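Hey Z.,

So I finally got round to the adenosine monophosphate thing we talked about over coffee. Here's the setup:
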Amino acid sequence: MRIILFGAPGVGKGTQAKILSSKLNIPHISTGDILRSAIDKKTPLGIEAKRLMDKGELVPDTIMFGIIRGTLEEEQSKNGFILDGFPRTVAQAKELDKLLNELNISQKKIVAITANEDEIIKRLTNRRACKNCKQIFTLDEIKYSDVCPNCNAKDSFYQRSDDKEEVIKKRLEVFNSTTKPVLDYYNENDKVIYVDGIGKVEEISQSILQNLEVSFEK
Ligand code: AMP
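And the result:
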């Protein structure tokens, strides 16, 4: 199954993608994670990406085309994938269609997770990431602890530089002006599955899976 998870920053795409990836046994491809890994390695791409990401701006389409092509052509993506954070522009959506066509993939499922902007701002300002395993947590989840519940690393929590309030505002602006039109593009030719992103994480995954008409063992 090829799933495109669409939604504003902070709507829960990453969390849901990880759950779906383990339930459906297909890789989770997060373009944000790919860029953050380039930043950690201080590659030329990473240095340029950091400059843009820290301002809440998008990395140029031409760079993203190369990243997505390389990733989808890898062996691990052959039997399915969950895309999280791509496409973010109409040009990227068109390029993805072209690439899927070249790879003889005719079916894709588009899942749009929705939430209101106030909730998104609250979630993004309240989240922290673990430096070691990259898992994201809310402040409520880690408040009294300095040990990561996922990988047991100590003192590893940090706030992503693009989760600061001014940057969040810019990211939402970019989402509304540049990324939202991607949904109009998909609505023209594909069926978009809309899922409410407010609620318990497990209930949202259940709702996505039901909509995808997938049965799985608990
Ligand atoms: P994310 O982790 O998906 O929220 O992405 C973090 C940041 O990485 C975004 O705010 C963008 O600066 C950059 N980024 C991730 N995916 C893309 C993409 N498909 N196109 C352009 N920039 C991206």
